[in-house]
Amino acid sequence: MNDYYAILGVSRDADQSEIKKAYRKKARELHPDYGGDEDAFKELSVAYETLSDPEKRRMYDIGGADAARGGGYAGDSFDFGDILSTMFGGAFGGGFGGGGGPQSRTRQGREQLTRIEITLEEATFGAHREISLNTYVACDVCHGSMCEPGSEPTTCGTCSGAGYSIQTQQTMLGTMRTQVPCPTCQGYGTVIEQPCHECAGQGRVRTRRSLTIDIPAGAGDGMRLRLAGQGEVGPGGGPNGDLYVDIVEKRHPTFSRQGDDLYMTVTIPMTAAALGSTFELDTLDGKQSITVKPGTQPGDELRLSGLGVRHLQRPGRGDLHIGINVEIPRKLDDRSRELLEELSAVRGEESARPEKQGSSFFDKLRETFTGQ
Q1: CA 184 – CA 193 distance, rounded (Å)
Q2: What is the distance between the alpha carbons of residues 206 and 198, in angstroms, rounded to a whole number?
Q3: 78 partner at 20 to 30 Å CA-CA among 185, 277, 279, 320?
Q4: In what order do the strands lie in the sheet with 112-118?
């Protein structure tokens, strides 16, 4: 069995960039147009096409070239379809596409996943954000054809474009025929004799791509957006896969979010709490006039309707909840102390007033029978 890694001159743990670089170097040496050996060049192309495809490479590492071509055997396992094909003269199409003809080099690209951080303001009102990601895009030299400009795939001389060949074997049951992928074109029916120099015959190149995405109003932490057809382009200029974007919401210094409601705390002087006050408050919608009623207590809450986060995919917004914290001065000047002492005397607040405990079950029972 030919060792595809040895043919390319790379180690078995080589990454895609090393494989691509080795192929380009050897392709120039072996290409028939430059005096190279045609069979060696075809063998090199098969090796590169197998090892540059992650799935084919995985299958090759498991079971060799036959496994990579989908020919059936991979180690000690076998494809039951191949057994049926052998027994019934190919009526079941073997393990290769059911006898439907050559495979297409064009395949859909894989899905991709990325993440983006958004602010509370972007979550509340929605936003347009530009992101960038490493992905495959169509080769701008061959435009997905995989061929060097001015050339095109040629019909495979081994299978005459069928993509498969029939192997005949004499057994005790008679003549058995098995349909297998063509070893020359790997089942595609054509051979790319002049691969594109830019993409090494893949029809796509890996690069960093930028795009603008819409963050919907009401988006939140943990939400996943699906952007159809924005993932990587497929081999041979195939259709793009989908792109998924995970949303991470940044922590806001002032507001906390629970669902579509926002919460914050403001601190007011004790005099403002006792006498009442009006002040301006910065919200996501700008400054808002807030009125604190006389006698406001620590822990009281004000609620501003419709100043929270916009609901996702339905009209309206959540509310803004404002918790009140009353500030008690730690130090007093002489005049302030004098005024507070006068107020305390007027209100009779010189001593603490214990809170009355609620009646117990036995107290209520005693009141029922004694009338006290």
Answers
A1: 12
A2: 11
A3: 185
A4: 112-118, 243-249, 224-227
Angle between helices 38-51 and 16-30 (to 10 degrees): 170
How many angstroms separate the CA atoms of 335 and 344, rounded?
14
Strands 320-327 and 301-304: antiparallel
Estimate the crossing angle of helix 38-51 against helix 54-68, to 10 degrees: 130
For the chain, the domains span: 109-153+192-251, 256-347
CA separation for the pair 13, 165 (Å, rounded): 32
Q: What are the backbone dihedrals phi and psi of residue 163, each rounded to the nearest 5 degrees, phi first?
A: 90, -5
* Structural tokens at position 339: 């005024």
Tens digits of per-residue pLDDT, 64-90? Answer: 776 666 544 333 333 333 443 333 333
Question: What's the CATH fold of domain 256-347?
Answer: HSP40/DNAj peptide-binding domain (2.60.260)
Alpha-carbon span 327 to 325, nearest angstrom: 6
Q: Which single residue is written with the structure tokens 């001389």? A: 157
CATH of 109-153+192-251, one of 2.60.260.20, 2.60.40.1930, 2.40.40.10, 1.10.510.10: 2.60.260.20
Backbone dihedral angles phi then psi of residue 111, each to the nearest 5 degrees = -75, 155
Residue 78 near residue 72 (C-beta atoms within 8 A): yes
**37 beta partners:** none
Tell me: the pLDDT tens digits for 134-173?
999 999 999 999 999 999 999 999 888 988 888 777 766 6
DSSP summary character for residue 340: H
Among 102, 285, 84, CA closest to 188: 102
| pLDDT tens column, 199-228 | 999 999 999 999 999 999 999 999 999 999
Contact in structure between 42 and 195 (CB atoms under 8 Å): no
